[in-house]
Amino acid sequence: MHGRAGSGRSPVDEGAGKTGGGRGLMLDTAFLITSFVTLFVIIDPIGLMPVFLALTQGMSSKQRRAIAIRASVTGIGILAVFALFGESVLGFIGISMAAFRVAGGILLFLTALDMLFERRTARRQHQGDEIAPEDDPSVFPMAIPLIAGPGSIATVILLTGQHPGIEGFASVMAIVVAVIALMLLMFAISGMVERVLGPVGINVATRLLGMLLAALSVQFVLEGLSAFGFAN
């Protein structure tokens, strides 16, 4: 009796403690859902599927699978680095996020030009089945900047900033892996999409996607310039 009275906690207090724990769980669940939706929209696995198909046009299923895996692993690694160290990575070498956006936009625009004028296809016709290192899109532009671009990098920096520590980092990276796993699933069915569209459909889709990538690259550049105060 005395021991229970000396504890200073009533059944109401104990119930409040349980309610508080449940609220914390709800907040964690809300954070996970919001983070997943945000990264899914930013990385856009569904939107990347036709881009992947255009960039790997004429390749075998084995080559596409290898490129998809390399792009995914590279993208996860880059996002993990930024989730751990945040803006200090860019700040250490004196690069702002705005400058990163401009650089990513310019590089993406060069890829868009290749897609518009079929330079990649012409190179493959002279090289046969072997893919030259400069023609492998796994690192650029798939991993950078399409998967680990300015938007996704900024997102993981913000999300890990909301929940600092190893638990926050683990939660954010688990979400990153889940989104990229869905992206791999989209890439796995890209061959089926290619067979349905045929050569003419792929050619049309490649040029249209080249235009979209060009517009996206210009948007990256404008956002970077806007942050510098040049394009308000």
Automatic annotation (TrEMBL):
Cellular location(s): Cell membrane
Record keywords: Cell membrane, Membrane, Transmembrane, Transmembrane helix
Name the record gives this protein: UPF0056 membrane protein
PANTHER family in the cross-refs: UPF0056 MEMBRANE PROTEIN YHCE
One Pfam family from the record: MarC
Domain of life: Bacteria
Membrane topology recorded in Swiss-Prot or TrEMBL: Multi-pass membrane protein
Family note: Belongs to the UPF0056 (MarC) family.
InterPro entries in UniProt: Multi_antbiot-R_MarC
Transmembrane intervals: 30-55, 67-86, 92-117, 138-160, 166-187, 208-231
